């Protein structure tokens, strides 16, 4: 993410009110705009097609299908993206751009195989057990695979710093989605829910095709070095574990409550807990601005200190390296504290608005009783995410794995415990998990601060590692040397 930090440095460097607004807008464009566009398109379709007038069973089937499409597309792409991102960063640094296409093809194959392997058995159950129409099942599966390719292509476009194109493609796809839903429903007289699902699938495929075609126009040469890509999965397996476990931890508290009395079973296949899931959505959006703040301010400033430390290591004196290191960690601490302070104010304001205004729009009762605890959990969770990014900066992969595992396990255990508590404590699992993960990451960062010199100067290799037959241990033949003498 350092690329956006460099761009934001140029924007904020003028230090005017206008540039601060532009910088915040640019951060939003990069971080959450695509998600907001998709949510907005679904809301517009529901309003235009009078979704609320549709039967309860059809509404729940559509909602559950969309929910599963997004959750499991994110889960099945999570294991690969962090390693592929590391590989792409190294390739770009080495300027061996012909190695990007092998990564592109290997990554796509792995993503498609895993995602298809997870989706096909579920769709078979949906059709044979749930008795859902085959066309509806195929359309939902098509939208799921399209979203997998969208998430995959976003990785490459982000590495290329083409953030504006990402948002533009999402906007085009979702405008197409809304228009097609009207066409399917009003002109072709399809059902409201199928019109919306089919239009959403077409829109997602449009985004995927546009993104993939743009990537192919960027990278044309293929070195054919596929083994190098596979080697990265073995070298950086910790990235796979961290990203997948962290992503699983985001939803595992929902999965726990899907097994309680709150659950709703749709078509004998989809399981969800609408009340808890809605409270989760509200809590996430209450704190989503932390992502924008992190990108626009925290990482931007830290990257400059990190760069200064790296330059000191390359050609500076010992005292210069020590000073640069202290300034870097001081900035890290200051910006994390600043992120907590700013986000706390934003969270409190949004929380008060939600508690006052949401009951007027039909959101009340149990949702608002569950919401406060989850809002606290997501507040800590986004702070945890910032710490994991800093652990990546220092290449502390063991620390990132430990952080993610402790976060996920504690969230799971706390959520199981919370099912036996009153509604106001249902989100305590996420609070405890995020707090434990945050504490682990914090102490890993403190450990890294104390041992950074060892990490920087004692991890190198004098001889390049190779995998081949061991040479003979015999240095010379003593008797031959004596005869020559």
Distance between the termini: 66 Å
Work out the count of structural domains: 2
Low confidence ranges: 1-5
Number of beta strands = 2
Number of helices: 17
Structural class by secondary-structure content: mainly alpha
Average per-residue pLDDT, rounded, comes to: 85
Shape: globular
Helix fraction?
over 70%
Strand content: under 5%
Give the biggest beta sheet.
Answer: 2 strands, antiparallel
Cα gyration radius (Å)? 25 Å
Tell me the strand order in the biggest sheet: 1-2
Order of helices and strands: HHHHHHHHHHEEHHHHHHH
Q: Can you give a write-up of this model?
A:
- The protein has helices at 2-12, 17-31, 33-48, 56-94, 100-128, 134-159, 163-187, 192-218, 226-235, 237-257, 274-287, 289-315, 318-357, 366-393, 397-418, 428-457, 478-484; strands at 264-266, 270-272.
- The chain is 80% helix and 1% strand.
- Strand 1 (264-266) and strand 2 (270-272) form a beta hairpin.
- The protein folds into two domains: 32-233, no CATH class; 236-456, no CATH class.
- It contains 17 helices and two strands.
- The protein is globular, with a radius of gyration of 25 Å.
- It has a two-stranded antiparallel ribbon with strand order 1-2.
């Amino acid at each position: 993410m350092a690329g956006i930090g460099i761009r934001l440095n140029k924007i904020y460097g003028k230090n005017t009110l206008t540039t601060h607004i532009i910088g915040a807008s640019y951060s939003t464009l990069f971080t959450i705009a695509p998600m907001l566009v998709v949510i907005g398109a679904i809301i517009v379709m529901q309003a235009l097609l009078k979704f609320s007038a549709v039967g309860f069973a059809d509404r729940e089937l559509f909602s559950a299908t969309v929910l599963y499409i997004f959750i499991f597309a994110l889960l099945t792409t999570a294991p690969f993206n962090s390693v592929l991102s590391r590989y792409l960063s190294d390739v770009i640094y080495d300027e061996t751009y012909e190695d990007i296409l092998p990564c592109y093809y290997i990554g796509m194959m792995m993503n498609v195989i895993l995602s298809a392997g997870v989706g096909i058995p579920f769709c078979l159950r949906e059709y044979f057990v749930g008795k859902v129409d085959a066309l509806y099942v195929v359309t939902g599966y098509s939208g799921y695979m399209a979203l997998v390719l969208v998430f995959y292509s976003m990785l490459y476009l982000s590495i290329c710093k083409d953030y504006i194109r990402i948002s533009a493609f999402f906007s085009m796809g979702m405008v197409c989605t809304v228009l097609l839903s009207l066409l399917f429903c009003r002109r072709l007289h399809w059902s409201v829910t199928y019109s919306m699902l089919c239009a959403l699938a077409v829109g997602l495929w449009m985004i995927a095709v546009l993104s993939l075609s743009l990537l192919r126009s960027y990278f044309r040469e293929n070195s054919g070095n596929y083994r190098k890509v596979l080697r990265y999965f073995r070298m950086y397996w910790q990235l796979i574990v961290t990203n997948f476990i962290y992503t699983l931890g985001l939803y595992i508290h929902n999965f726990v409550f899907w097994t309680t009395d709150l659950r709703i079973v749709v078509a004998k296949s989809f399981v969800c807990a609408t009340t808890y899931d809605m409270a989760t959505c509200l809590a996430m959006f209450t704190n989503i601005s932390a992502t924008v703040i992190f990108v626009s301010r925290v990482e931007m400033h830290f990257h400059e200190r990190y760069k200064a430390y790296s330059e000191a290591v390359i050609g500076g004196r010992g005292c210069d390296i020590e000073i640069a290191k202290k300034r870097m960690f001081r900035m890290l601490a200051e910006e994390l504290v600043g992120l907590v302070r700013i986000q706390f104010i934003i969270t409190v304001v949004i929380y008060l608005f939600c508690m006052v205004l949401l009951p007027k729009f039909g959101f009340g009762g149990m949702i608002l009783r569950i919401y406060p605890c989850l809002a606290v959990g997501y507040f800590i969770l986004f702070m945890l995410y910032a710490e994991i990014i800093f652990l990546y900066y220092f290449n502390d992969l063991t620390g990132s794995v430990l952080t993610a595992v402790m976060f996920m396990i504690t969230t799971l255990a706390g959520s199981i415990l919370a099912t036996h508590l009153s509604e106001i404590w249902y989100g305590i699992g996420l609070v405890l998990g995020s707090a434990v993960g945050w504490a682990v990451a914090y102490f890993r960062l403190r450990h890294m601060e104390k041992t950074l010199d060892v990490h920087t100067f004692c991890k190198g290799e004098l001889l390049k590692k190779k995998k081949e037959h061991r040479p003979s241990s015999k240095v010379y033949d003593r008797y031959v040397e004596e005869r020559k003498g």
